[in-house]
Amino acid sequence: MKKLIIGILFLLLFSQIVFADDVAVAVKNRVGILDSEHEQPIKDLLEGMGHVVTLIDRNNVNSINFDDFDLIVITGKSGSEGDLNYVENIPVNSHKTISIYKSHVDEWKWVESSGSGAFTYSGQNINLNDQGYMIVDGLNGDELLINAAGKKINYVETEKTFLNSVANFADFNTRGLLLIADAGSELLNGTEISERVGFFGIPSPGFWTQETIDTFENFVNWVLYGLDGDGDGLRDGEDNCPMDFNPDQEDDDGDGIGNVCDNESPVVELLSPEDGTEFLVTGNSKLVLFNFMVTDDSSPSLNCQMYADMNNSVANPMKEFRPFGPTITVNNGDTGTVFPGFFTIITGDDTVQWNVLCDDGDENAFADDNFIMSVNFVSCAVDSDCGDGVFCNGEEVCNENFECAAGNPPAVDDSVSCTVDSCDEDLDVIVNAPDDGFCSNGLFCDGAEVCDAVLDCQSGTVPTCDDDNNDTADSCSVELDICVNTACESTETCDGIDNTCDGIIDEGFGDNDSDGIADCVDFDDDNDGLIDDLESDDTDGFTTDPLNPDTDGDGLLDGEEDSNANGQVDDNETDPLNPDTDGDGVKDGADAFPLDAEESEDTDGDGIGDNSDDDIDGDGILNGDDFILGSTANIETNNGALMLVVNDEENPNNIVGEGSVSIVGENNTLIEFPYVFGNENILDTRRIVVNTNTNGQGSIIINGITLQENDTKTAYIDNINIDTNDVCIIDAEVSSIAVEGDCSNGVKVTCNGILTGQYTCESVNNETLYKISGLTHSAVTEHVTPPAGGGTSGGGGGGGGGGSSGNNQEMYRTRYDGGEETVGEEPNEEEPEVVPELETPEVTNKPSPITGNVVGNFLKNNRPGVGIAIIAVILAVTGVYGIKNKGFRKVKKLLKR
Fold first, then answer.
1. d(Cα 105, Cα 81) in Å, to the nearest integer?
2. Is this prediction's pTM over 0.70?
3. Cβ neighbour number for residue 655 with a 10 Å cutoff
4. Which residues on adjacent β-strands are paired with residue 645?
5. Could you tell me if 629 and 677 are in contact, meaning their C-beta atoms sit under 8 angstroms apart?
6. Secondary structure letter of residue 344 according to DSSP
7. 826 Cβ partners below 8 Å, 6+ apart?
8. What is the pLDDT of residues 43-75, one digit of tens each?
């Protein structure tokens, strides 16, 4: 696939270089003085695409023969209408044309009026529509096409034009940003245009992002060549077979029609036996059927006959290419079967070269190449013909070609790391012999480890070091590998010994991982499963941090990533210094396929990534027919087990058409909303977030549920605060609730059942719940009006679904020449006081897609003490030294073999 893509790109690039187009670029001033923000970048981009550019200004427009050009591009600048009066004399509707400004589009009858002025870009997304799909090739559904930078976008009210909208503003879907019309399209005055035209409403190309540049280049190619109907990398306007895939453009007869669609003669395709097929036969005969397919432009049926040359056949000694068997009738596009009869091989081997001749009454043709097959004698028919009586090399088989083949040796590996695995040829058995040596970690103080043939390495018995003397400190020295009985001292020394006889070893010394072993005698200071010396050794492939169990912060311990503890990234391992080993944008700890850049999620846990899985939620319904993806287990929530109810059906696998939806928690309904299930409206539970009471008040945050226009949600929150019966509604996609002042950033509603704006709040369920109706996105919290000059209610800090800006925020924009510059936002004149934001607890009923493990969640929420305690408990259960020496045992075992 990669080679095909590279080949197509090469063809596109080559065609642009060889078949350069002449482009007329209309500028507002003299051709020698180009505006650096508008005109020069357009010229540079077109020349960079391989086009020959001729500049046309207002002084020479009337003397230009536009028939000499393949494309007309009209540049523009906000406020420059007076300089562009000359463009009304350009024959845009009879030539392929792109306008980058709205002036005169009404005079050309592209729009009813150009009075819907420039729109200042303010951060909302842009919808990319299906029309002209090649124009937005490579871009996702919603992408920012321009840098903010205070620049303006030209748009057209879509109801004022017959042109098709390729892109519009997400918040104003009636405002067309990119408009196109194909040849033959009708204009507003009833006339038809004779060539493709387009309105590209993004001026200021000097500040375009790379996405805008890519879109403009696609726009130019569409106007010049149209779409690529057969997907072979060549636009229809330059494709000699626009409806048939033929990237090589072969045209043997030179008539301008490619071979694949120039079917003047029948086209015969041989199917089977495939070229080079070899039949191995134990008897003296073989019946063979020869299959082919024929297509033809002029006849619904054809007469076909097999031709063959049986070179060595005793039954057919003529050794010439001639017809065999009867003539048969085959329908156009069907598969036919021909055969020379049941031929008998008396002795020797036969080689057959065969083809099929088909005649439509006017023309006849063979397949392009003959197929060759052979029939040979063999010596085996069943597996027992091949056995050599040796147990340890496996049972030999007679394969599908009737040849003896070696069998698969019996598996000797028992997956127990401390056994010596072998095959005993004398006894014809598999031997798995325990070897304690594989288990020894070389540490005296934890006892001699032993190998169990089933349970693998088992911990030894810890030696007893007590000498029954109360005046000595009795301990086992990890550093010296001996029992130590020393006189009690007044101070502790970091040596693995209880020097002060107080029952505590090495107190007062650092213990980075809180495992009870001081760092000075701990071989693994961060308990990540890798020995400190290995992590610090730069002679291997990489060096990790011996004091940080997760050096790259991807949610996996360094020892999990370097599972064989060899200090290198092996084929089946993730990189402990790269949080995203496969570069797909998902951290390794949250990536179900951290070594596959094409996959990151496995919703149903079947081992097949969602991008390749025809049934991503494993409910037996194919994705194209499944309008409920995932299950309640996929909803991110802090409410424990949830239930999805649609039309009174609990947790349905699928629903078609209208539905009344509820998401129910352990005690009560959380959300209610209407939904029309179908191909355009799929409820994806994997994207839904429902969290409640995250700020100490009764509250709810709902994300990932998009309703149809005019539909709203109803939410229920706990009535916790007796000091208020008001709620603050922040009707937006947010990750946490931030109430500013007296709900100045939202809508304050009193829960008295009276409509406030579009919202209503009422007390229900014996005044234990508030029911809030009319919500669009939504976040709601109980709200206490702050005292004069006081703070805010409901927790601090806001979070928004579209990012936020600040005085120090930086943005990057790509200039037309590919360079990059940093632009700081202008400081706000007044910054409202916002109290610190309360983060939504990362408590869910599924693995967190952000942190990837429990410890990461505690560390993320500023609770490192709890996270460290969890690590200590895990290590106490699994065994410190067993983790440390897992890789060591594997290496020893390999060496012994």
1. 12
2. no
3. 20
4. 650, 662
5. no
6. B
7. none
8. 999 999 999 999 888 777 778 888 999 999 988
